[in-house]
Amino acid sequence: MSPIRIDFPRLQRDIEALSAIGRDADRGIHRMAFTEGDLAGRRWFRERILEAGLEFYEDGAANLHGRLDWDGERPSVLMGSHLDTVPAGGPLDGALGVLVGLEVLRTVKEAGVPLRHPLEVVDFTDEEGRFGGLFGSQAVAGQLTPAMIHEARDLEGVTLAEAMASWGLDANAALFARRPKDSIHAYLELHIEQGPVLDRGDFSVGVVEAITGLFKWDVQLRGQTNHAGTTPMDMRVDSFQGLAEFAGEIERILEEHGSPHSRATIGRVELRPGAANTVPGYTGFSLDVRDTDPDTLANLADAFRRTLSAMARRRQLMFEFQVLSEIPPQRCDPGLVQLLSDKAQALDLKHLRLPSGAAHDAQIMATITRTGMIFVPSLEGRSHSSAEWTNWEDIERGANLMLQAVLSLAADGQEALQ
C-alpha cells in the first residue's frame, strides 16, 4: 500500500490565495503583526480551519490553532510557524510552515487515519518582530512577564498593549497562553531556508540540527563634531573612523573566537550631524552576532566588547551600547533529526543536515518540548524580499516529508518514536 500524500494542488491554491493578502504595489507583502494585512490573513486562515472541519482555538497571545482529534488530555503533535511578515516581505517566510501544517491535518482527517496523539497547527503571533519578535511562541513557552508585555513597543512608539487593544484584545492575557510541557508530544516546523546552501547544493530538503542564537546591540560612539576643512586629520576625534576600525576587526574576531557557523553584521549606521563638510561627532550602529553554540556566542560577545572598548580608548571616543535582544541557541532533538532524515531517505529525497542561521519559533518551543525542523530551498537564498520563492516540487517534497514524520509520531499503529 502506497503512503498517503498531501493534496498538493490544494496547498498550491492556499499559497497563492494567502500571498495575495497584504500585497502592495511594490509586490512585497505587508502583514506586520496587528496591522490590517495581518488581520485579513488571520481571518482567511480561520476560515480555512473551519472549512476543513477542524476545531479552531485562539489563545491569549492571539495565536491561532487548528486542531484534529483534540480531547485536552493526550499530548498533541504540534506544527507551526507564522503568518506575519516583515515590511515588503515574501510569500513563503513563515506562511509556508503554517499552510503545510494545515494541509497535513486535512490530509490525515480525510484519510481517516486513527491517531494516538491529536494534531495541531498554530500560527504564532509576531514572529517577525514588530514588537520584539517571537511573542506568540514565547507566550506558549511561558517566557513572558507582565513587564515584557508592558514595555514592548514598535519603532513608531506604538505599544503592544495598544495594538492588541485596537483589536479588542488584552495583551496581559498572553500570560495565560502558556502550555504545560506534558501537553505537547513534539513540535515540528517547516520553513524556507532563507539562505543559499540547499539551492546551491541541489538538495530537495534540509534537516535542521541546531538553530542559531544571537545577540543584537545598539552601539554609540561619541567624538567631537568639527569642520571638515579646518580640522587637521591628526587633531580629529572622528566617531566614524572608530566604526571603520571596528568593522575591519570583525573577520579577525570571528576567526579567532568564532566557529564556521558564526555570523556578525553591522546592518544600520547613523552619522550625526550628517553633513558632507562636517566631521561626525556621533556614530550609532547595530551589531548582530549569531552562532549555534552558547559558549562560542558568549566568547564572541566578550571579544567584541573588548575590541570596541580598546578602540574607543585609543581614539578618545566615548563608547556605550545597549543590548536590544538575546536569544540562546538551541539544538534540535536528536531523535527527531534522525526521524526526519530516515523519512527523507525513504522518500528518496536528496537531503542535507545543516544549522539554521535565522531565529525561529522552533527554538523557543525547544525549551518546552522536543523539536525538529525541515528546510526547503530558497531560490538564490532570497528571503525577506518579494523575490523570495521555492520551487513547487520542493514545496511538495517538504510537505510530504512533514506528513510522513507526523504519521510516525502520532498515528495509531505506527511505531512510536522513543
UniProtKB/TrEMBL annotation:
Its cofactor is Zn(2+). It comes from Ectothiorhodospira mobilis. Zn(2+) 2 binds at residues 93, 128, 384. It holds the Pfam family Peptidase_M20. Binds 2 Zn(2+) ions per subunit. Belongs to the peptidase M20 family. The lineage of its organism: Bacteria, Pseudomonadati, Pseudomonadota, Gammaproteobacteria, Chromatiales. The keyword Metal-binding applies. This is N-carbamoyl-L-amino-acid hydrolase. Gene3D superfamilies: 3.30.70.360, Zn peptidases (3.40.630.10).
